[in-house]
Amino acid sequence: MGLWLRVVAWVVLSLVLGGSRCGEDGVAPPEVWREDVAPAFDYALYCDASGRLTGRYSDVLLVHRSEHLERVYADSQRGDARARVLFGQLEAQVAAGGEKLADQALGLVCPALPSCTVRWAFLDELIPSHGAGGMRLRHVLARSFEREARLKGVENAVLNAALSVLLVGSVLEVAEAKAAGAEARTLAGGLGRGLSLDDVAALEARFTEAEALESGARLPAQLEALARYRPSVHQPPSGVAVTENRWVDYVAYWERRYEELAGTRQRPTGAPPVKPPLKWESYNVFRGRFQEALEFQGSVAEVLRREAGLAKGQRHWLRGLEQPLVAENVGLAHEGRVSLTYVDQFVVDEASLRPGRTPSVHSFSNKQHDFKSMSESAVVRQFDADVREALTKYGGTVEIRRPGHPLFGRKVAVSRVHLVYEEVEIESGLKGRLTRRAEDFNVELHFHAQE
């Protein structure tokens, strides 16, 4: 399976841009883009006055030059006609590449492998930008593949592995150690919930952010010392089975952190500074807490979806909304910030999207704390920190970055920020104090017990 996926990915990714077929001339040799030094940006480098691609390898070079690609995408989002035509051609070519990948998923049809494997061995080399434009192309590629693969009846195991290749990480490491996004996919899959492509990207980003804040024991940051601790899929710690998913995930995680420290793997734009990998014991504990948080998030989302199905007058958390639409892990962009924030639940009143109305949107931040072990003053301090974080990350004016969402690409003012705590043994007087304090911050506080 690993070697098969490696060959398939090599074959197909070499054909994504330009529409080349096996054995055809015109596939850009690696030195064209690997040794390229980007000149000052100019649309004339890539297209004519109407935005149509011109020049040999112009599509390859544009996608490889991250700053140029992001410039074109940003201009297209602002409505520039030339940029929209140019970026639209890239999307069409990448979508065609996704269909080719699905074709290959049922068996290799290209006998001339050397001529088909010269362009890209890694997705990060294929689309190096982790900005909005680069991620847009990754999503187009992944969606096209997923749609076509499902039509062809590709089995879920193959589909999930390939989607992980398309969305995050390098082809070779994914083939050998499941997927660079294995944490996100395994966690969400273990919850029995449907996992969209956008959820994969969001959970991977959230995992990276949470892991950077983790205080558990870590391995040395110096590469020579760190290399002595390189884990092997086939040699797990005592008491851990070779087939244990979490151990396989740890090996993939360790390799990614090593490459990031060595500078051979690009970090997403706005990602936290890279730290050395956690020790296995710390990683295992952290993963357990992360999964518990996802389970709590899913439980809160289920409450909101049930409320959305009730009559308007029967709603509590969603009171006042006419046609609430609940989504999870929605990416939000704030002006002046590089990285996106991903809100636990994002609810839009679809009735407010009608012409002449202002969109009504609510964001929800879910938190779990061991309040039983805290003093009352410590609980209040933690509450204040949670409120500030929720308002900073999920409040104010935000741009919706979730493709397919009815507000995708629009800037809206968040109408209401909600904070949801896990129901714990906390005396009613303190609950009342926190609820009143939340009102002072213009935040709505809820307590929720998982079923």
Question: What does the model show?
Answer:
- This protein is of the alpha/beta class and 451 residues long.
- The protein folds into two domains: 176 residues, no CATH class; 156 residues, Trna Endonuclease, Chain: A, domain 1.
- Helices cover 48% and strands 10% of the residues.
- Strands 5-4-1-2-3-6-7 form a seven-stranded mixed beta sheet, with helices on both faces.
- Helix 17 links the parallel strand 6 and strand 7.
- Helix 5 packs parallel to helix 8.
- It is globular, with a radius of gyration of 24 Å.
- 39% of the residues are buried.
- The N terminus is likely disordered.
* Overall morphology: globular
**What does the average pLDDT come to?**
78
Strand content: 5-15%
DSSP strand tally: 7
| Main β-sheet description | 7 strands, mixed
Helical/strand content category: alpha/beta
Low-pLDDT regions: 1-27, 104-122, 167-194
Percent helix range: 40-55%
Radius of gyration: 24 Å
